[in-house]
Specification:
The structure is a single chain. By secondary structure, this protein is α+β, with helices and mostly antiparallel strands. It has 2 domains: 160 residues; 75 residues, no CATH class. The protein has 11 helices and 6 strands. A 6-stranded antiparallel sheet has the order 4-3-2-1-5-6. Strand 3 and strand 4 form a beta hairpin. Helix 4 packs antiparallel against helix 5. The protein is elongated.
């Protein structure tokens, strides 16, 4: 009973099992130390001590990503540089044009989030750069856009350089991620088509890296990718409006869909609307192309009293 409660609490709080070695954890700690010392030395030469604390705090968040999760998407150079740059520019602009600091702070962080999303450079510490431009005090405000070009970006470049050099010291990690060379072993014939969560956990342990997705997420990604890659077993042109189709799966994965709306043209890329009638995701609706639907379908079915039978 106690173990079930602990498991439920861990699942709710998002506490997962770590598959990294002590060497990897120590490297992350030492790398963060080196990055922040370098940033602190440069910032102290530009700003008074009171303002230094704010900037180092912003870069400290970047240090966690670059040295603890160097292969994560949010840690890559474009995310680091673009995230801090656009966010800092937005923060300075809001501080200069919005008199109420509370409103300015909220607008700055909100716009920074949206801009990073559209520019494909999401970097959570960028929000801190936007916020500090508003609440950093007179020393920061006096810099104007110099806050971006003489402080934030030089510090971002410094921590980027340290991350590249430091991570190159360890054969199992590289930064940026594009420099990583995966050494494949001899091919192994799988016993089954599907990977289990334990298989993915083993792979993560052998890689000795902190990946910012869970084994369950990776298993779902693999499953969906295999489903999309499998050959089309049903002719897209034969899909008809109002008819019922099944994926032919077993157990909880079994499902029946009905095509509820579909244009008359038979182009495989034409979108159709379906409703899940039975099985997994019952009563849900979805939109996909004829080809995608055909990849999912195994056979057409019809209802025979209380059961579904193949046409």
């Amino acid at each position: 009973m106690i173990s079930r409660v602990i498991f439920a609490v861990n699942a709710f709080m998002g506490v997962d099992h770590q598959h990294t070695s002590h060497a990897e954890k120590l490297a992350s700690a030492v790398g963060g130390f080196c990055g922040i010392v370098a940033v602190f030395a440069v910032t102290r030469a530009i700003l008074p001590p009171a303002a230094v604390v704010w900037i180092v705090a912003s870069m400290g968040a970047s240090a966690v990503l670059l040295f603890a999760v160097p292969h994560g998407k949010l840690s890559q150079p474009w995310a680091l540089l673009g995230g801090h740059f656009f966010s800092a520019v937005i923060g300075v602009t809001c501080q200069r044009w919005i008199s109420d600091p509370v409103i300015a702070a909220g607008v700055a962080v909100g716009l920074a989030n949206g801009t990073m999303y559209y520019m494909r450079c999401i970097h959570p510490p960028g929000g801190a750069s936007a916020l500090l431009a508003v609440i950093g005090g007179p020393a920061i405000h006096a810099l104007g856009y110099g806050y971006v070009f003489s402080l934030v970006m030089p510090n971002a470049l410094i921590i980027l350089a340290v991350a590249i050099a430091f991570n190159a010291l360890f054969h199992w990690r590289r930064y940026p991620m594009a420099l990583m060379e995966w050494r494949a072993g001899p091919p192994v014939k799988a016993k089954t088509d599907e990977l289990k969560e334990a298989d993915i956990a083993y792979a993560l342990e052998k890689m000795d890296l902190l990946v910012d997705v869970t084994p369950e997420d990776l298993q779902q990604i693999y499953k969906l990718a295999r489903e999309h890659a499998r050959p089309i077993g049903f002719d897209p042109a034969s899909i008809k409006l109002g008819h019922y189709y099944s994926n032919g799966a077993y157990g909880r994965e079994w499902s029946v869909r009905q095509v509820v709306d579909m244009p008359e043209q038979s182009d495989a890329e034409v979108k159709l609307i379906y409703k899940v009638i039975a099985g997994k995701e019952r009563r849900e609706s979805g939109v996909c192309t004829r080809e995608e639907f055909a990849r999912w379908v195994r056979h057409e079915v019809y209802r025979n009293e209380t059961t579904w039978q193949r046409v």
